[in-house]
Write a structure and sequence with these properties.
DNA-binding, mainly alpha, 0% strand, Arc Repressor Mutant, subunit A, homodimer, Tetracycline Repressor, domain 2
DNA sequence: CGGCCATCCTACCTACCGGTAAGTATACTT
DNA sequence: AAGTATACTTACCGGTAGGTAGGATGGCCG
């Protein structure tokens, strides 16, 4: 049986965050090391010993600040998604046409993604892949808000005569598809990165349509 | 130092594949178990002990047939991507308009994805995420072929007046974005699965355009 | 019949995993 | 001076990871 340590924190509780972490603190060094290693190896294949070795501190220091391996993962995700939420708030305040605001929302999201590639890559692997022993994190809270905001803009665009009358879900997924593929190329082929200009062209292709207006995509053009 | 076993295969060589594996053979049971566990937990967080427990065989039996944990992973990927290549071959033989054939290629790809969700989820995590200790597998061999085939069809469509004149790369990524998002919803929200009908609607949205033809998406509609 | 081979097994190996107990150093308070 | 709190450490714990040595079994063939 464990005896309580009179001078230690509860063993599963991470230290409360004090001043904002910066790179030179132990807390910050651990976070940076974890981000780098999770990005390069994935959550499950990264060991606590590696993280602390890269950070240059002892293993129990990680437990002191973050409580567990899971704790440092959740801290990473929490920080990144708080920034993403901030992007939504700022994009909501932008002005202009509905379509312009959709472009702006996507551009901001893409920009943030690119500035957080390490966490983004880990998120992608876990959100679209198996959990890998990582603790649950509510990615969908953010995704649903993004979708809601996009849907509202598309509906506004339909009201204003900028967006075609169609199922708003179809329009939404078409836009998200374009945004996602730009981000996915960033993840697996950074040398082919579309960049902001490429994302804009891609969105324009989706908004203007790939087909010549007179050409209706055939419903059943092939033998099945 | 190990002495060579006179009756065993070289320790790193998996047994040559004999008859096609079916579910009831040890080989097949191991593959199925691995697919299931890699899908549910990821490569790095799945242990060999778990795989063999699910398959109902001993651990060295896995080494006998596949040589290593990596070996069984590569066998899984190899099988799935061979099927995907076959899809490309079949779609290339289809007839109809360029746009119709693009729809058909996407529909076939989506269908195969849905029938191999387990392997697809693992592939997604590793292709877009960190390697997680998994051995290298040339996913891009297939992806580049798919892109090449799609690009050829788009160019054909431009020649035939079905597809707008634009950078063929933009058109290609727009189409792939639509296909990918349909697959990604399948991975993380199967209850929202677009299904083949939803994929077709999505592709139609992309081909027809999200914007009303007279409405040009603003190039700089918002403050930056 | 005995040897060979293929197919599997039990028991074991080394190295390593996440987490923890106990301790040390420093600063501050009473 | 003693006690407390904070920030870290060394050494250790129990369990487990991928892989392997040696063996058992059954079928086939000369």
């Amino acid at each position: 049986m464990k005896r309580a340590r009179p001078h230690a924190s509860p063993s599963r509780k991470a230290r409360p965050a004090g001043a904002p972490a910066c790179d030179a603190t132990v807390r910050g060094k651990l976070l940076d090391a974890a981000a780098d290693l999770f990005d390069r190896k994935g959550y499950a294949a990264t060991t606590v010993r590696e993280i602390v070795a890269v950070a240059g501190v002892s293993k129990p220091a990680l437990y002191y600040y973050y409580g567990s391996k899971e704790g440092i993962y959740l801290a990473l995700m929490g920080t990144a998604f708080a920034q993403a939420e901030q992007t939504l708030v700022e994009a909501r305040e932008s002005a202009g046409s509905a379509v312009g605001r959709i472009f702006h929302l996507c551009a901001r999201n893409y920009d943030l993604f690119r500035r957080n590639l390490k966490v983004a890559r880990v998120m992608y692997a876990i959100y679209y892949g198996p959990p890998q022993g990582a603790p649950a994190f509510d990615f969908d809270a953010y995704h649903l808000r993004f979708q809601g905001q996009l849907r509202a803009l598309l509906e506004e665009g339909m009201q204003a005569g900028e967006v075609r009358r169609m199922r708003v879900e179809d329009a939404m997924w078409a836009v998200i598809g374009a945004l996602n593929i730009a981000m996915e190329v960033e993840l697996c082929h950074p040398e082919l990165s579309p960049g902001p200009a490429g994302l804009e062209r891609l969105l324009r292709a989706v908004f203007n349509g790939v087909a010549v207006p007179a050409a209706r995509p055939e419903k059943k053009g092939v033998r099945r």
